[in-house]
# Entry
Amino acid sequence: MIASLPMYDRPENRAAHNAFWTAFRDTLGYGPATLERAIAYDATWAHPDLLLGQICNLPYRSAFKDRLVRIACGDHQLPDTPAGYYHSVFVVRAQDADRGLAPACLGRFAYNDALSQSGWGAPLARITEQGLQFHSTLQTGAHVESMRAIVENRADLAAIDAVTWDMLCKWEPAAKDLRVIGRTGLSPSMTFVTTKHHDPAQLRTALDAAITALSPQNRDDMRLYGLKTLPDQAYDIPLAPAPTRPLQLAKN
# Structure
């Protein structure tokens, strides 16, 4: 049995995640002693006895909707965003902020992963709505690496999960050299999931208790303030096509 909450687990808020897990397990009455951090996040989704996991809605929709059971979405209290949803922000170098989104799309778009709703699916949908397209793309492997790629002039534009952006504005030096020039549409936020072997109602009760038990500082560090159960149709979002015109990631 494993539990993994990889999507917002960083060194700066690791203590908050640990406190959250302890409160969750104490309420539930069973579970692994610690959160799993050695297994790759996408491998945890396929683990046969995942007690508690966290998944982005694009990989859920594309590969895991028949394999995992949704428990609830996190309420991150993002501005102008309903509970259970999130969005991404488009960022560029500070000196390029006045140019706007359309000129930025003519540059190099950095994305973390083609199966990321926040980094690829949502931004692609937004620029397509506006009749734009990405001139070229660069896969970086992580939101923070996309931000660094812009600062280091290896890319010109990225879309960062708004929860991650809020965290990295506090903890990542590259953020001070970037500016937000727009945002994507709404999508279901990171979703707590389990396998079909476990009772989602019981797990939701434990999640509620764990959030309530968090100190205000830990709640802010996790940017987690509650839960929201979304209907099935909230996930009825077309799958994004794979990136085209990719560039090789090369550090200076």
About this structure: The CA atoms of residues 92 and 157 lie 5 Å apart. The radius of gyration is 18 Å. The first strand starts at residue 2 and ends at 3.
